[in-house]
Amino acid sequence: MNVKHSKDDVLKAGMELFRLNGYHNTGTNEILKSAGISRGSFYNFFKDKDDFGAQVLDYYGVWSTDYMKELLRDKRLNPRKRLIHLFDIFVQGYKRDNFKWGCLLVGMSQEVGQINPKLTEACSTNFESFIYVFQDCIEEGQQDGTISTAQDARSLTIAMLAMYNGALVLMKSGMHEEPLIAFQNQLELMLKP
Amino acid sequence: MNVKHSKDDVLKAGMELFRLNGYHNTGTNEILKSAGISRGSFYNFFKDKDDFGAQVLDYYGVWSTDYMKELLRDKRLNPRKRLIHLFDIFVQGYKRDNFKWGCLLVGMSQEVGQINPKLTEACSTNFESFIYVFQDCIEEGQQDGTISTAQDARSLTIAMLAMYNGALVLMKSGMHEEPLIAFQNQLELMLKP
DNA sequence: TTGTAAATAGATTGATTGGTCTAATTGAAG
DNA sequence: CTTCAATTAGACCAATCAATCTATTTACAA
């Protein structure tokens, strides 16, 4: 192919800008400049900004779940340790970049929830993907006895994801690593059988 | 006084609009219309939109912590049950209004984090107020043995607040009450000594 | 090479944004 | 009542927004 600027490049640029600066605070001009394409190309690829936003959410969702699945495939660790290891990798990544990144789904869902059905739906769908990936691992751990069965798999998964998302929120509001550490400590406690 | 439109009325209107539709997605015109004041009055009260935003955050912070403190003052319940009762009241409120509200601090911090120092600072300060209020109660419970001491008070508080914030995020992204219930179940488990 | 449709460039559009400005109104002090 | 500053009203402004439009280039089929 050897295409200079593919659609994926634009989605990647949008993903980074939306994660850093939010959806409504990122203008199309900024996206065009960052992706190095022209306005004509953008509107050839995407119907409008919302259509672009929805595709960015899916791009982020696939990109994230692929990485999560890869990390959770490592059978040398038991399911509980696999989850703890995954979040350790994630936390290290946030720390490495000085906590400037947030979770796109978290930010976007807060920004457009209840006012933009199409984007809200995309957030919801991708959150569900996250849940399925984590739940798979938690179910395996509950079956082999390495993860607590005090709550059913789905509830425990949602509680865990909620605590992680919330820790990212506190992190981004200037508290740095402290909420991430509190999350990791509590995660150990709540997964232990 | 008998003032028709006080500054607090504008702050309240802004708080509701920002919670519902986000900061960047709420124009000043919408605020003026909702508060029933003129542009001149608005810019007489506030230096600019950011100054208004910061004051709205403080207004929301005080309004919330006052309510939280009131609920946690009820000494007929032990500290653990007081916390569980508080979140039960909150969850009932969200349910009553069909999950349309989010937490202003959560939404705002995601929207302006890392790009608007003044507003980010206001988010951080008010989150800290939340933490202090909850931590007081958790410390009391750890001392009288009704709350787990597996984690120190501040870490446990942050983990709890993170899980609550994250549950609100998932709630607003269209999952309705399920994440709130998962949060409440997990809360019981993590507070129990 | 030619024909044709897709992709690209970027000027331009109308609507909306946050913010300013002047004039009118208000309210309290003297 | 008069005075004068504070408040309010709302027209207005430049900047920016998402989106459209036409001209041009590119890519590929015949």
What does this structure look like?
The structure is a homodimer of 193-residue chains. The first copy, chain A, has 193 residues and is mostly helical. The first copy, chain A, has a single domain, classed as Tetracycline Repressor, domain 2. Chain A is 75% helix and 0% strand. The first copy, chain A, contains nine helices and no strands. The longest helix of chain A has 27 residues. The first copy, chain A, is elongated. Chains A and B meet through α6, α7, α8 and α9 of A and α6, α7, α8 and α9 of B. Chain A binds a DNA duplex (30 and 30 nucleotides) through α3. Chains A, B: It comes from Gangjinia marincola. Chains A, B: InterPro entries: Homeodomain-like_sf, HTH_TetR, Tet_transcr_reg_TetR-rel_C_sf, TetR_C. Chains A, B: Pfam families: TetR_C_13, TetR_N. Chains A, B: This is TetR/AcrR family transcriptional regulator. Chains A, B: Keywords: DNA-binding, Transcription, Transcription regulation.
Question: Could you say which structural class the secondary elements and strand pairing of chain A correspond to?
Answer: mainly alpha
Order of helices and strands of chain A: HHHHHHHHH
CATH superfamily of chain A: Tetracycline Repressor, domain 2
Unreliable spans of chain A are none
Radius of gyration based on Cα positions of chain A: 18 Å
What's the multimeric state? Answer: homodimer
* Count of spatially separate domains of chain A: 1
**Apparent shape of chain A:** elongated
Number of helices of chain A: 9
Question: Kindly state the mean pLDDT of chain A as a whole number?
Answer: 95
Terminal Cα span of chain A:
52 Å
Beta strands of chain A, count: 0
Largest sheet of chain A: none
Which two chains form the greatest contact, residue counts included? A-B, 51 and 51 residues
Q: What top-tier CATH class of chain A fits best? A: Mainly Alpha
**CATH architect. name of chain A:** Orthogonal Bundle
Strand content of chain A: under 5%
CATH topology of chain A: Tetracycline Repressor, domain 2
Q: What share of the residues of chain A lie within helices?
A: over 70%
